[in-house]
UniProtKB/TrEMBL annotation:
Cofactor(s) recorded in Swiss-Prot or TrEMBL: Mo-bis(molybdopterin guanine dinucleotide); [4Fe-4S] cluster
Record protein name field: Nitrate reductase
Keywords: 4Fe-4S, Iron, Iron-sulfur, Metal-binding, Molybdenum, Nitrate assimilation, Oxidoreductase
Metal-binding found in the keyword field: yes
Any GO BP: nitrate assimilation
InterPro entries: Asp_de-COase-like_dom_sf (IPR009010), CT_Nitrate-R-NapA-like (IPR041957), MoPterin_dinucl-bd_dom (IPR006657), Mopterin_OxRdtase (IPR006656), Mopterin_OxRdtase_4Fe-4S_dom (IPR006963), MopterinOxRdtase_cofactor_BS (IPR027467), Prok_molybdopt-oxidoreductase (IPR050123)
Organism, as annotated: Moorella mulderi DSM 14980
Keyword set includes RNA-binding: no
Domain of life: Bacteria
């Protein structure tokens, strides 16, 4: 109750990319409660289960409180000074002996904008290493490449308000009911108030698929033919905005030629979706006054993911459904601040969406940082490449910050061997955790609720997270730890910020005149308005929709400012992408499609949610969903322990017999590691099964399109 709390601290939920506003209740210096912020523009007074219980992570007994150093099999407490000195020394020695590729950093997607900035400044500007990547490689990398290909910049064009007003919500490879519950509520409100139609493309019978007006139950790995099928019908039945295509895009003829090869009957054969449903979906999309396509990991983690994003964008471009209220191709980010990561130069760019291969961009950043330009890497190595470098003995020291690759990386047998081999520094808020089992040095970080900073949600909205309580024991926030390591590397003056807002002031200057201009933003503005959407060069609420001006210009030279597409010609590009079936498809030995994903009760590798009894009790372990027809054929009963086997490895989990998966497909939630503290060992991590096939354009692993078999035990 209100009386039991000393003060309420306004902050933002630290889980999914929705970015819900909430208040954290503090009593005697401890977090004791949460309540939704009724004025927050995103969630308007509602929270989901995870947001409601997030405060329980703050004072958990397994919070890491002191730095640790490995001696033999055991980890022992050491002072911060010793730990930091050794981190600095190891990094320095590795680089001196093996060059820039000998050290690397791999971090999470739930840090603050300021922390990302510091990590990337350290990696690129001080260490000069190309080995810098984030777990967003597993999550949004394909969207980044897809947006850049179509629009010239990695910027989600729409905003959440589009979900409130659109006449058609096309949910493609996403399950907002479980992953972005507050956005799903907004979609349902739109349907109730305005009669919006819902179309879902998903191999699983998810909650959105069950309530949709039309469910396109495509097979795993068949996104490209389905999208081409829709484009084929839009063109054939002339449901296009030809004026928009002419004025604002290039490449239509090539796209039309490619789509002509995908008539509905052929697409039905490739996807398993009835031809009549493909035609119906295209007509719903084409005839709706507005449409939002919401997409997530069913796109990003599938085969040809970047091509899929490109075709989704094209669907909107050829129908003119972009840059207007209720119309956008809208990627939902899974992690609270995944978009912040992209803004500061993750995914291979430099801050302000600068191109590291552009000499002018390199000079701008190097001059601003006061470092020699040649130190900046021209290309970065993604985590896949970094693990190969470890295997080859070239990457010697890896620093993992706020992520749990020992559970989340694909092909865990391979990935864990590399974590074993490298000198590993792990920085996290809990100890023990799976990746820390491989650590040589462990640094205790501060978590959500214990530090100030900005996190950017899926609609480009910068939100504040606030320090409500102190970190436990000797734990320090990541910005402080990174700055202190920089001191041991002799670059302390580049990180001498008195606080996070000073780091933000430095980085925001690097966005001046860039597509994500934040120069009009400061913490006071964010606090006052409850979030601001970039670009925001002049204060105020920023920019809710991009490309609003693309309806008005007629000549490329008029393409300036934020209203137009960011390719040099000012137009969006349509692409005729090839179609290649996934590299691994079911066969006689591995007859099932393997799909992996998330569920509402847990978050990522459960580092936080397994420590919240209310959530852990709801789903305490992994399982495999099997269709009743397959279960009957295999003689598998509900709850029976089965072995799921792929070319990489195996897990043993109970069967959940359900129509949610189609015959011939199985689904395993990816949240679970093999060992829970205080529990028996269970080989249940879905990534024992997944492979290292990646999208060649984005480097993103295909966690949703593999093959496996089910064995009775
Ligand atoms: Fe947090 Fe996402 Fe739930 Fe909102 S919808 S409370 S941001 S987990």
């Amino acid at each position: 109750g209100e009386a039991a709390v000393d003060r309420w601290v306004a902050t933002t939920c630290g889980y999914c990319g929705t970015g819900c506003g909430l208040y954290l209740g503090v009593k005697d210096g401890r977090a004791v409660a949460v309540k939704p912020d009724t004025t927050a523009p995103v969630n308007k007074g509602h929270l989901c289960l995870k947001g409601l219980y997030e405060w329980k992570t703050l004072h958990h007994p397994e919070r890491a409180t002191v730095p640790l150093r490995r001696r033999g099999k055991e980890m022992h407490p050491v002072t911060w000074e010793r730990a930091l000195e050794e981190v600095g020394q190891r990094l320095r020695e590795a680089l001196a002996a093996g060059g820039p590729e000998a050290a690397g950093i791999y971090h999470g997607g739930q840090l603050t904008l300021e922390e990302y900035y510091a990590i990337h400044k350290l990696a690129k500007g001080v260490l000069g290493t190309p080995n810098i990547d984030a777990n967003t490689r597993l999550c949004m990398a394909s969207t980044v490449s897809g947006y850049i290909r179509s629009f010239g910049v990695d910027a989600p064009p729409g905003c959440y308000e589009d979900l409130d007003v659109s006449s058609l919500i096309f949910i493609f490879g996403a399950n907002p009911a479980e992953m972005h519950p507050q956005l799903w509520q907004r979609i349902l409100r739109n349907r109730k108030l305005n009669g919006a139609k819902i179309v879902v493309a998903d191999p699983r019978l998810t909650l959105p698929a069950r309530v949709a007006d039309l469910h396109l139950r495509l097979r795993c790995g068949s996104n490209i033919p389905l999208l081409y099928g829709l484009i084929n019908i839009l063109i054939k039945e002339d449901m296009l905005d030809r004026d928009f295509i002419r004025r604002a895009t290039t490449g239509f003829e090539e796209l039309a030629r490619a789509a002509a090869a995908f008539p509905p009957e052929r697409v039905a054969g490739l996807t398993g979706v009835p031809a009549a449903d493909i035609v119906a979906a295209a007509r719903l999309f084409g005839r709706s006054p507005s449409a939002v396509t919401v997409f997530c990991q069913g796109v990003n983690q599938s085969s040809q993911a970047v091509d899929t994003v490109t075709l989704i964008n094209s669907l909107h471009l050829i129908t003119g459904k972009i840059g207007r209220p209720g119309s956008a191709p809208f990627s939902l980010t899974g992690q609270a601040s995944a978009l912040s990561m992209r803004e500061i130069g993750g995914g291979g760019s430099l801050p302000g969406f600068r191109n590291p291969e552009n000499p002018e961009h390199r000079r701008q950043v190097a001059d601003y940082w006061g470092i020699p330009e040649e130190r900046l890497p021209r290309r970065v190595n993604d985590i896949n490449r970094m693990l190969e470098l470890v295997e080859d003995g070239r990457l010697k020291v890896l620093w993992v910050i706020g992520t749990n690759p020992a559970v989340s990386l694909p092909d865990l047998g391979f990935s864990r061997r590399q974590l074993e081999k490298v000198f590993l520094i792990v920085q996290d808020i809990f100890y023990p955790m799976e990746t820390a089992a491989f650590a040589d040095i462990f640094l205790p970080g501060a978590g959500w609720g214990e530090k100030d900073g900005i996190i950017t949600n899926s609609e480009r909205r910068l939100n504040l997270v606030r320090r409500a309580v102190n970190p436990p024991g000797e734990a320090r926030d990541d910005l402080t730890i990174i700055s202190q390591v920089a001191r041991y590397l002799g670059a302390g003056e580049l990180f001498a910020w008195p606080g996070p807002e000073d780091a933000f002031r430095e980085l925001r200057e690097l966005t001046r005149g860039r597509p994500n201009d934040m120069t009009g933003v400061d913490y006071a503005l964010l606090e006052r308005l409850g979030g601001v959407q970039w670009p925001c060069p002049e204060g105020g609420r920023g920019t809710s929709r991009l490309y609003t001006g693309c309806f008005f210009f007629t000549r490329p030279e008029e393409a300036q400012g934020y209203g137009e597409f960011n390719h040099p010609e000012g137009r969006a590009r349509l692409w005729a992408v090839p179609y290649t079936p996934p590299p691994e498809v079911p066969d006689g030995e591995f007859p099932f499609w393997l799909n992996t994903g998330r569920i509402i009760e847990h978050y990522h590798t459960r580092t936080k949610t397994k420590r919240i009894p209310e959530l852990q009790a709801l789903v305490p372990g992994a399982y495999v969903e099997i269709n009743p027809q397959d279960a009957a054929r295999l003689k598998v009963a509900e709850g029976e322990l089965v072995r799921v086997v792929s070319r990489r490895g195996w897990i043993e989990v109970p069967a959940r017999i359900t129509e949610v998966v189609a015959p011939g497909e199985v689904f395993v939630p990816f949240h679970f590691g093999d060992l829970d503290p205080g529990e028996r060992e269970r080989r249940q991590a879905a990534n024992h099964l997944t492979g290292r096939n990646v999208d060649l354009l984005s480097g993103q692993p295909m966690a949703k399109a593999g093959a496996c078999r089910i064995e009775k035990l």
